[in-house]
Each structure stands twice: as structure tokens, then as C-alpha cells.
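Recap from last week: sequence in, structure out.
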Amino acid sequence: MQCARDDLQKGYGRHVLQGLHHAESYAAKAGIPAPADIPLLRRESYEVSVRRKIGEAHDALTLAETYAHDGGIELPEDFQQLQRRLAELAQQP
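Predicted C-alpha cells:
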């Protein structure tokens, strides 16, 4: 479980989710209880993954805006709405 905690610190939420799933599966096959901290680690993994995806979305919108500017292309009407929604999501704890 320490590897999972280390990976969470590095921002590897999705990777940790896969590892937790395997840990639960192997524990079930071995007939032993899964580690008690799996639910907490799973929650933290989702939180890390959400933050990472919000960051990726921000980067994608910034890049789209740059491409539109450089190409002299008008941005779609919903672009500003996407930016506002992303800013709202980024402010949530």
C-alpha cells in the first residue's frame, strides 16, 4: 500500500486505481481480507485523477485558443462557457 501512497503523491491516480483493483482481486482469490485502507486510497485516487483531468482540459482549451488565434479561426460559441465551467471546477476543493 505504500507504493499506492507514493504514486498518489506523484499524481498517478489512475495507475493507483488499477493497483487497488488488483489488490482486492488477489486478496479475494487468496481468501484473505483486502487491506482496510483501500477505500480511502480509492477516494484519494479519484481526487487526484479529477484534478489531473481538469488540468489536461485547461491545457487543451489553451492550446485550442492558440490554434484559433494563429489560424485566424473564430472560436465556437460554447468556448467561453467551457472556460468558465473549467474555472469553476478548478476552484472546487
